């Protein structure tokens, strides 16, 4: 179960983050900066903190709201954002 969860999480996050605004920002920083290792470490640290906050929020919400309901809300949010992006509204 652990390796399956790890791989599915990796795949979902990797595909979601591939060439999004975060990647574009890192590309931009790497064009200016000479020390790629510090850009890499800064990006990894930022992603680590963002992921830790998401895990903490998810754990907190799961105490008060059904995980099934949270998944529906997340799916609806992704659908709405995708729909609005498709038509240039955001």
Task: For the structure shown, list the relevant keywords.
90 residues, mainly alpha, 86% helix, globular
Please state the overall shape, judged from the principal axes of the Cα atoms.
globular
Order of helices and strands: HHHH
Termini gap:
38 Å
Tell me the total number of β-strands. 0
Poorly predicted regions: none
What would you report as the Rg, rounded to the nearest angstrom?
16 Å
SS summary, helix count: 4
Largest sheet: none
Strand proportion, as a percent range, falls in under 5%
Mean pLDDT: 89
Helix coverage percent:
over 70%
Q: Return the structural class.
A: mainly alpha
Summarize the model shown.
Helices cover 86% and strands 0% of the residues. With 90 residues, the chain is an all-alpha fold.
Polypeptide structure, described:
- The structure is a single chain.
- The protein has 90 residues and is mostly helical.
- Helix content is 86%, strand content 0%.
- It is built from four helices and no strands.
- It is globular, with a radius of gyration of 16 Å.
- The model has no long low-confidence stretch (mean pLDDT 89).
Q: Any chance you could write out the topology, listing elements then pairs?
A:
Layout: H1 2-17, H2 21-32, H3 36-64, H4 67-86
